[in-house]
Amino acid sequence: MSEIKKFLYVNRKAPYGTVYALESLEVVLIGAAFDQDVSLAFIDDGVFQLAKGQKTTDIGMKNFSPTYSALGDYEVKKIYVEKESLEERGLTPDNLLHLTYEDEDEDYAEKDSIQFVSRAELSDIMDQQDVVPSF
Fold first, then answer.
1. How far is the C-alpha of 64 from the C-alpha of 61, rounded, in Å?
2. Considering its fold, how many domains does the chain have in total?
């Protein structure tokens, strides 16, 4: 049996206007459903994917941001948001969705999935992965 590889999906694009954000989310959910060790990183305009209050009616696209709340159900517990990207776009952690998972090792206590990391920390996290696809 082969060992489980660690995947870090890097999200760099704004949520709408291209297919990248939605495709990344779909790939992550599929990988997690097959018990891959899946994590996500949001950098550059990708931080907008996690913004609260997305309204898409004027652009004629479905708002898929509520789907991020399902990540915890798929055991996706490691979501990294680059601090510098947030700051450069005038966002704070309060502007983002509150994503959680239930920690079965601690009597299903609800814990935050999002970790705010610096560029240097994210670089170190990337170095620890087996596969780092970018969307």
1. 9
2. 1
The answer to whether 15 and 65 have CB atoms below 8 angstroms apart is yes
Question: CB under 8 Å, gap of 24 or more: what pairs does 45-48 form?
Answer: 45/12, 45/13, 45/14, 45/85, 45/89, 46/10, 46/11, 46/12, 46/13, 46/14, 46/21, 46/85, 46/135, 47/81, 47/82, 47/85, 47/86, 47/89, 47/91, 47/96, 48/14, 48/15, 48/89, 48/91
**Residues 57, 24: contact at Cβ < 8 Å?**
no
Q: Which CATH number do you get for residue 116?
A: 3.40.1260.10
Q: Name the pTM for this structure.
A: 0.92
pLDDT in tens, 18-60: 899 999 999 999 999 998 999 999 999 999 999 999 988 888 7
**pLDDT at residue 1 greater than cutoff 60:** no
Q: Which domain holds residue 118?
A: 6-127
Cross-strand bridge partners of residue 101: 111
